Amino acid sequence: MLFKTTVIIGLGIIGGSLAGALKKFGVSERLIGITRSDAYKRAANIGLIDIGYPLDNLGSVLKDVDLIILAVPIRKICAFIPEIIPIVKQGCIITDVGSTKHAIIAVSNTFSREGVFFIGGHPMAGSEKTGFEAGSAELFQNRPYAIVKGENTPDEIVTKISEMVTKIGAIPIQLDSKTHDRIVAGISHLPQMLAIALMNVIGKENDQDKRFFQMSGPAFIEMTRIAGSSFSVWEDIIISNRLNVSNMLQNLTAELERLQKSVEKLSTKKDFEQANAYRKRLLNG
Question: Which domains does the chain have, with CATH numbers?
Answer without folding.
Answer: 3-174 (3.40.50.720), 180-283 (1.10.3660.10)
